[in-house]
Design goal:
alpha+beta, 6-stranded antiparallel beta sheet, rod-shaped
Length: about 625
């Protein structure tokens, strides 16, 4: 490979590598960007589903809390203690559909001297208030801590649901004697008003006692507490409802608790909810949004959980569906089409570039070969014609020898021109198309008889012998339609190669010991006429076998031969063979020298003619 060809391919492959690298980078970035976009859309859809589910859950729990928060304190039975194994501690006479989650109601004295674990759990600060305090601390904390809290759930959404929960858990004004005697005479109403004023005055006088009770009980009354007067004229104060979890018998129980002052005594009023039934109904309400979600107490939540605002319960959504490794999308289809187009363009440019390089090399070899081959005959023509024209050759014998040399060189020059023109014609015609105008129908034996003497004479000029072996006795009635001159040219080119590469040269010490036979084996096989030409020369090396039929290709030994030729003989012979529908191949049958096999298809047998069937 010369330097110019190497530089051309180096520039081409460098450009290809640069283009493919840029396209690969763009493809990776597009795929990554698309995956991020799909991930963002999936995450946004998931967050929207979680938000809708949380609103449904809190919307379902808000009426339950509102009904229980508005329940009058008179409906609770006064008890000194509460046991978890008691099925019913107080029955509500007027129940509604929303009461179906209540397992038991309780009314417990809120005093620190009561040594009961469950009562102590009921007296503990509510979990939701603890979380609110923690959130306030986070809001006041560093920005990183605040951003981490906001990353788990949006503040605005939780705050909106929390406000609804606060409205639902605030106690409404309790049922009192004022409502029961709204239709009584004015005197009775005025008497009750005095009683009410006295009660409020008594409550004001007991302010210090309530503060002491709040200190001993661990909490103060909620600012949203409601006040009422029972039938005996006692002022009752009821705080907001607070949901919380307590532990009993190794399991967590969900209760709703509120502070109250009844008959001057602080009490804890509340109820236990059927958590299992409630959980099933809550999950059923969001089954169309989050079919595989779970609900757990908020004190057991893990990363990725979302809190409810109404009760201390966390929603754990199902795992997100994995993003498929590959899916057809418009962007990816465009990338595939672009890759195909770029690769096709690279292949096309490579083919064109290779053809251009090959054509340039062929042109260079043609100019070199023609220049070399034409120089010798033209020089001989110029020298001999000048000597004859100037009368420098007076001897008739020498004069006759000069004329013979001029004739031989003119024939050689004519052969060179004819080979070039014939090869140019074959290059413009597809194999099997444009048959020669000199076609004739002959028998195989007659065809061989036409060029056999010429082959023998040509070999004789180089002190070589033709050994013909014809096996045509069984195929005398078969015919072949070819141009005899084309077949003779093919065979003559093969004989010329044998003369150049297998004849005894000047370097041979003993030419008589050199095998100068050239074999011509003719036979018919499967309706094909086969003609094998084999010599006893050095043969063709494996490195030359792949390019022996190329244009302007000459063997290594022929490069030093003054009569080596243009290197078109074998290429022209194969082109003529394929033009006749046959082929010329380099084979290995006899096992010596160079062996070329010419195959020509015979004419088909006419089955309708009885004389044509053997």
């Amino acid at each position: 490979m010369n330097t110019r060809r190497l530089l051309t391919w180096l520039i081409f492959w460098s450009s290809v590598a640069l283009a493919l690298g840029a396209l690969a980078w763009v493809s990776v970035e597009v795929v990554a960007l698309e995956r991020r976009e799909v991930s963002s859309r999936t995450q946004a859809s998931r967050e929207e589903s979680v938000r809708r589910a949380l609103w449904r859950l809190d919307s379902m729990m808000a009426p339950v809390l509102a009904v229980e928060a508005a329940r009058p304190s008179e409906d609770y039975t006064a008890l000194l203690a509460w046991s978890a194994d008691t099925q019913t501690l107080g029955q509500i006479t007027a129940g509604t559909q929303l009461d179906s989650y209540a397992i038991r109601y309780f009314n417990v004295l809120n005093q620190p001297q009561i040594d009961d674990e469950l009562v102590q759990q009921l007296q503990a600060p509510p979990m939701l208030r603890q979380e609110s305090a923690q959130e306030e601390a986070q809001e006041a904390g560093p920005p990183a801590q605040k951003s981490a809290k906001r990353a788990s759930e949006p503040d605005s959404d939780y705050d909106a649901r929390n406000r609804i929960a606060q409205l639902a858990t605030q106690n409404a004004p309790q049922r009192s004697i004022l409502n029961e005697q709204a239709d009584q005479p004015a005197s009775a109403s005025r008497a009750f008003e005095f009683q009410e004023l006295d009660g409020f005055a008594a409550l004001e006088s007991d302010e210090r006692q309530q503060a002491e009770l709040s200190d001993t009980g661990g909490r103060t009354m909620d600012t949203a507490s409601a006040f009422s007067i029972d039938t005996f004229g006692q002022i009752q104060s009821v705080g907001s409802l607070s949901p919380r979890w307590i532990s009993s018998d190794g399991q967590d129980r969900l209760v709703l608790v509120r502070d109250a002052i009844v008959n001057g005594q602080p009490v804890l009023q509340g109820l236990e909810l059927d958590w299992e039934k409630l959980r099933v109904d809550l999950l059923r309400s969001i089954s169309d949004v989050l079919p595989d979600a779970t609900l757990v107490p908020s004190n057991t939540t893990s990363l990725g959980a979302y809190r409810m605002a109404t009760i201390p319960v966390a929603l754990i959504p199902p795992p997100a569906d994995p993003i498929p490794a590959w899916s057809w999308s418009p962007a990816r289809v465009g990338l595939v089409v672009t890759w195909i187009a770029i690769l096709a363009t690279i292949i096309a440019v490579g083919v064109v570039l290779r053809a251009a390089i090959v054509l340039s090399e062929r042109r260079g070899r043609f100019v070199s070969a023609v220049t070399h081959e034409l120089r010798t005959p033209l020089t001989t023509f110029r020298l001999y014609s000048q000597m004859l024209a100037d009368g420098m050759v007076s001897d008739e014998e020498v004069r006759s020898d000069y004329l013979s040399t001029l004739k031989r060189e003119s024939e050689r020059l004519t052969g060179i021109v004819e080979n070039v023109l014939e090869y140019a014609r074959l290059s413009r015609v597809r194999p099997g198309k444009g048959k020669s105008s000199g076609e004739q129908t002959l028998s195989p034996g007659a065809l061989v008889a036409r060029f056999r003497p010429a082959l023998a004479r040509r070999l004789g000029q180089h002190n070589m012998d033709l050994v013909a072996s014809l096996d045509l006795d069984d195929d005398q009635d078969r015919t072949v339609t070819v141009d005899p001159h084309a077949v003779e040219r093919i065979m003559m080119n093969l004989i010329e190669n044998a003369c150049k590469y297998a004849s005894p040269g000047d370097e041979d010490a003993d030419p008589e010991e050199h095998d100068t036979r050239v074999h011509l084996d003719v036979g018919v096989s499967d309706g094909v006429l086969e003609m094998l030409v084999a010599d006893h020369g050095p043969g063709i090396s494996p490195a030359e076998r792949a390019k022996i039929f190329g244009e302007f290709q000459r063997g290594l030994r022929g490069l030093g031969n003054a009569r080596s030729g243009l290197g078109l003989g074998l290429a022209l012979s194969r082109g003529l063979a394929r033009e006749m529908g046959g082929d010329l191949q380099l084979v290995r049958r006899r096992g010596h020298g160079a062996e070329f096999l010419l195959t020509i298809p015979l004419d088909a047998i006419d089955r309708t003619d009885p004389h044509s069937v053997r």
